Amino acid sequence: MNSRRSLMSVTATTLCFLLYICTTTNGELKRFIEPAKSDGSVSFITIGDWGRRGDFNQSNVAYQMGRVGEKIGLDFVVSTGDNFYDNGLFSEYDPNFKESFSDIYTAPSLQKQWYSVLGNHDYRGDSEAQLSSVLREIDSRWICLRSFIVDAELVEIFFVDTTPFVKEYYTEEDGHTYDWRAVPSRNSYVKSLLRDFQDSLKRSKATWKIVVGHHAMRSIGHHGDTKELVEELLPIMKENGVDLYMNGHDHCLQHISDEDSPIQFLTSGAGSKAWRGDVDPTTNNPKSVKLYYDGQGFMSARFTHTDAEIVFYDVFGKVLHKWVTSKQLLLSSV
Prior knowledge:
334 residues, alpha/beta, eight-stranded mixed β-sheet, 8 helices, 25% helix, 24% strand, globular, disordered C terminus, zinc, Purple acid phosphatase, metal-binding, Calcineurin-like_PHP
């Protein structure tokens, strides 16, 4: 049985690697292909800020993710970053990878590809480690790049490396050390990324366009809005018809509607440690805020050519909030 599982793992890793190579061209973000189901739908779970060796209810959240994944016919998982605490991985052989990922997300429904971006905590360790093909040899589900695209036919998901945008991380005031080996110049890195991101969005013919990053654009949580993303990334999203922005960073669940565009801001950063308790949503809850939940949980998403359904769950699997919208009717309900 173990040899069969090992063979399946290697085969899956090889297939994923081939797709990665075949769908990469010069001047474009790297692209992974996820075919829609036979009924034309795509379903995934979004989780963020999770890797704590099962502590802080991480294992309980993982259990509920498995139940929901089976119910919705999960196609893949999206991770919004801060994948391993407290300071990322120290190398591609760090046991934290297995102890916080492979040993935790064991449900049959979760044995699908995990598409991950880096968060600020991941940059505090060896940021290259999480990008290494060695991890895919250990667990073939794992795919992590700085910025890339998942093409699921009717849905395109644009993953953006948001940590280098945040200017505070380049100063001593932040109090942490970051692995900037791949970011020798903040301005040139961000400029190049924004160019590739904009070009990829303009070429997209997908019905639904989703952007995933670690940091929030709109948040009433502890960290709040990320000024650099609002100024540099959000205008490109508005110009190119993006429907949803998904993020982590704040250890909570949130749904906030943009006030001057159809974009919905969805925070799923509650994969483990939460309950910070420093935000009172009753005193800071504008009309645009549809959900703020300070505890652990995750989010599911299901898309067809005409409809989208977003559902937020707590650590017990209870539905906290559901949002449905239709492209056909151009109407939404909460």
